[in-house]
Structure formats: structure tokens, C-alpha cells
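Lecture 7, part B: from sequences to assemblies.

Below are the input chains for today's worked example.
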Amino acid sequence: AMLRASLRQVSAALKEGRVTPTELCQRCLALIKSTKFLNAYITVAEETALKQAEESEERYKRGQPLGILDGIPIAVKDNFSTAGIETTCASNMLKGYISPYNATVVQKLLDQGAVLLGKTNLDEFAMGSGSTDGVFGPVRNPWSYSKQYKEKSVPKSHSEDEESNWVITGGSSGGSAAAVSSFTCFAALGSDTGGSTRNPAAHCGVVGLKPTYGLISRHGLIPLVNSMDVPGILTRCVDDAAVLLGSLAGHDPKDSTTIQDGFKPFELPNLTDVSKLSVGIPKEYHAPGLSSEILALWSKAADLFKNAGAKVVEVSLPHTPYSIVCYHVLCAAEVASNMARFDGLEYGHRSDMKDSTESMYAATRREGFNDVVRGRILSGNYFLLKQNYEKYFVKAQKVRRLIANDFVKVFRSGVDILLTPTTLSDAAPYTEFIQEDNRTRSAQDDILTQAANMAGLPAINVPTALSERGLPVGLQFIGRSFQEKQLLTVAKWFEKQVQFPVIQLEEVKRHDADVFQHQKSASFS
Amino acid sequence: QKVSVEVLEHLERLALVDFRDAEGVERLQKAIQFADQLHEVNTDGVEPMDSVLEDRCLYLREDDVTEGNCTKELLENAREKVEEYFVAPPGNIPLPKLEEQETFLQGS
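Predicted structure of the full complex, as C-alpha cells:
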């Protein structure tokens, strides 16, 4: 039961000595091993994690823990630089690459005593919405193995085993979402450029927070789209997300796109009165392809707020349908620029080709990048050609302003927060998902999450209910810039109302049972 | 309108990434088609947006050296090096012409 606790609960247990950091670390590592089939982790840093846990234990013994995160096992998406631990971005281009420095967010976690269990799997260079397109293979959604999903799946035949039935995690931070969802860590870092934290959070039934652009440092996050990327936070409950946010937010001199305003970490109040709250329901988020199930859930949620006394109004964000096209162009353009650094000379894969510098670069990139990455680089370069620059790149930048202005207008009209679906449907089976190509999939799946990245706004997925197939469905709240406290307060209230069920996983149960044989005290109420 | 072979070649040279096959070229065609939807939006009088933080001043620090001296660590990740240099094959040699390349552009 320890592993199923929230971050705050387990932190209290550590403080009270009910469990030690090394015990906790060992249990997480053991569970990672027994859930290896999920393919959530690319690298498990067993030795360093245990060492960090030991150091944490010393601090607890001296009565001097560094804070609430001391001794807490966490996982980090493999596009964050970690000193001494391989950072691959799930690409051949960076296989074997060991960064000489820690990303600021990683350093902050380590400085507070967190235990880094490992690096999680993703779509190659975070391009994708399934966590299926990395060189280490796809990530499997833990809910595929849950009692809730298995009960609802109709067995097709005796010979058809659950192997072919498993569903995707969503992406691109699928590994991180799966790690949190399967209890192998208490929080994980993801990244969010078009929905890459919120999408897998929705499919894996965990909380996924995309902070306001400029709040959390991107130093060390291998960039995709510099003007939209943010580090994302994945946890099992909203309060835990607030804890992580408190540890990570704030100006970083190494990232000049972090704002200089002071940030004060906060604890979330237990909101009981929502009568002063105005919730906006953007009608354009009733997007084509939205499942009737999710539509109904969204409606039910709106009613929940209404019945609790909040003001619930329909609003309009008219340029929403263009956010995907706009993203498509801006993303490709920034990617074309960002990927130029991978030439084999200073780090990463290098081809054996030696005829000339240019041919070495070309061969290195040919060998190192997958189709999706190469495709975006080429499109990006097309949109940036002199003859296309105004027509595509600048045009997209103008549309971006229109999208951002839509939000400004709505928030100015008295709406405090927006309530929308996070995904169009519950998680698709892998075999179905891969039938469409990556770009089509991303275009479909990002539609509800992308606009928040365009406008730089904070947004959060809160797991809401199980679908008819027994899989998680989440809803999204979008808030005003830098108003994370309000966003999370409302999200916490909503989380309390919906009481999303705990995943029932055989592996975790079995694991708990084994562990209980050996230990004396453990239980949580 | 299909993208001309000259542009495709130009792109491969600029990007130093190849289309690989007809499918790669088709992918670009579809990407352009998709992007063309942007032209449905009226953006008269709208300024392009570079960053959501455009109303703020970016942080600039003093021009003082605060870190460095990490030559050894930085060289560790390079495959080919000599003393404190990264070694590259000979430069100023343009990529082979289209006909000599292994691309499938001719077929598209």
C-alpha cells in the first residue's frame, strides 16, 4: 500500500520513520523490474538511486531532511539532461549520450533530496502523441493490465491473449505517465509542447500539469519548440502536483525565458464554496471526433459546477480549429532549427562517412533520426524558405496571436477558468493506433490541448472517470497566465468531487503481498 | 501543385536530411497541403507573435564569466577528437549532385 500512497503521504511516513528511503527506493526498483513489460523506462539508474536513498536516510536519521521531497522516488522523461545518466530522447541520434550537466529541474529535484529512479520512454524527440515512435519501442498503458479493463474486454477467442489487446499511453510523455500510474514512482517529469503531458495523463489516469510558459526553467530540456515547450508534472493527485510545482518554479538565470517575478510555493486550500467561480465552456472544444462518452462526461462536469453554485457559461474561442495547422507550421519551423545541432561532431551518433563535412552531417542525420523527425525537419525547412516565409511561417505567427487573443478576450470577460475535454476518446489499442501515421494522429489528438501551448497558458488534466471500456478519461482545466494557484485549487475541488477509482493491478497487489511478508509496520489508512 | 525537384533537392541540402523515398516526398506534399488551411484565416492588421512573453523584458545578465573550464567533459562526448579539437572531415566540398545521390527524387 505504501507505493500507492500520495507523495505527501509517503513523505510524512518517511519523516515519521514508518519507512526508510532505502526501503522505498528498493520497492520501487523491484516494481519497475516486475512491470518491465510496460516499457516505461529506458534507463533505470539503480546504483545512483540507491546511493541517493542512502544519503537521504542519513539526513532523516540526523533529523535534517531537506524538505518534503527528500527520499521521494521520481522519474524523469528521457529528454531532460541528466549528468552521468544516459539521455537518449528515444533516438539513435543520442544513444549512449551522457550529458555533463543536469537540467535545472533535475538539479532542483536532486538538491531537495529526491531519488532519481530513471529516465522514461517517449516518442522520438517528443514528436508524437502515442509514445509509440521511439527507438526503444512503445510504452504500454498500465490500465491494459488492470482488472477494470480486463473485465470489460470481450475475449475474441481462446488463443487471443491480452498481448494484442494492450492500449497506448498517449504521448509523448507516455513513459512518465505509465511510471506514475503503475506506482513505480511518486511523481515524474514530462514535457508539454502540444499536449505531451496532459494527453498521456488523461489516458493513464493521472494528474498532468502544464505550467505557464516562463514559470519553470527549460534549461536542459532538449528543445522541440522553444516558444512553446514547458516541463510538465505528472502525479497521482493535484496536491502532489502543487508540491512539485513549488519545488520547480521560479526564475532561472540559465533560461532567459523564465520570468523574473518572484514565485511563492503554495499549499492548496480546500475549496468548499465555488459560488464566486466563473467556469467557461468553450464551444469549439466540442471538436469533430469527440466521443459521445467524453461529451457526456464534460457536460456532467459542467453541471457539477453549476449545481455547486458556480457560474457556468458557454464561451467561444473561434480560432481553435486552426491551432493544429498553426502548430504544424510553427513546430516544424522551430524543429528544423533545433535539430540542426545534431551533426555528429560534438556529441551523439556520428556516421562513418568521411568524404566531406557535409556528407558526414547528412549521413549522421540520416542514420540518427526516424521518419517523423526527418519529416518535420524537411517541412520546417520548406516553410522557412525565402519564397514561403511570409506565406507560412509569418502567417502562422499571426494566427498564433489570434489564438492567444481569443483566450485573453474570454478571460477578460469575467471567466476564471475553462473546462474542456483533454482527449477525443479513451486510449486506443496499439494495433489500431499504428494504422494511422504519426502526423495524422498528432493532428487529431492534440486538438484539445495544443491551443494552451500557443497561448502559453497553464492547463491541467484531472482524471475523471472510467470509460465503458474500463479505461481512464480525464478533463482539462485551462487557467490564466501564472494563476496556477487558482487553477490547481479548482482542479483539487473537482478531483474530490469525482473520486476517480484506483487502478487495480495484479503486479502491484502481488508485490505488496510479497513485501508484507517481510515487514512489520506499513499500513496507511 | 507538386513541389519541384529543384526545391526538393534544395531542401535536402539545407536540411542535410534526405527524403529517402517517394513516401518521404509524399509526406512533405501532405504537410504543405495541410498547412495551406492557414490561408483561410483573415490576418489583416495582425502582427506576428514570436513569444507569449513579448510584453516582458528578457533577463540579461552581466557579461561576466561565471562558468567554464569544462573542456574535458565536453570532449568526452565527441567521437573524433585530437587534443582539444573536434575533428571533422574536409570541408568546403559540396554534397554530390542529385544524379549521384542515393535519393529517389527522380522517381517522384
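Note for the exam: The first helix of chain B runs from residue 5 to 15. Keep this in mind when comparing with the next example.
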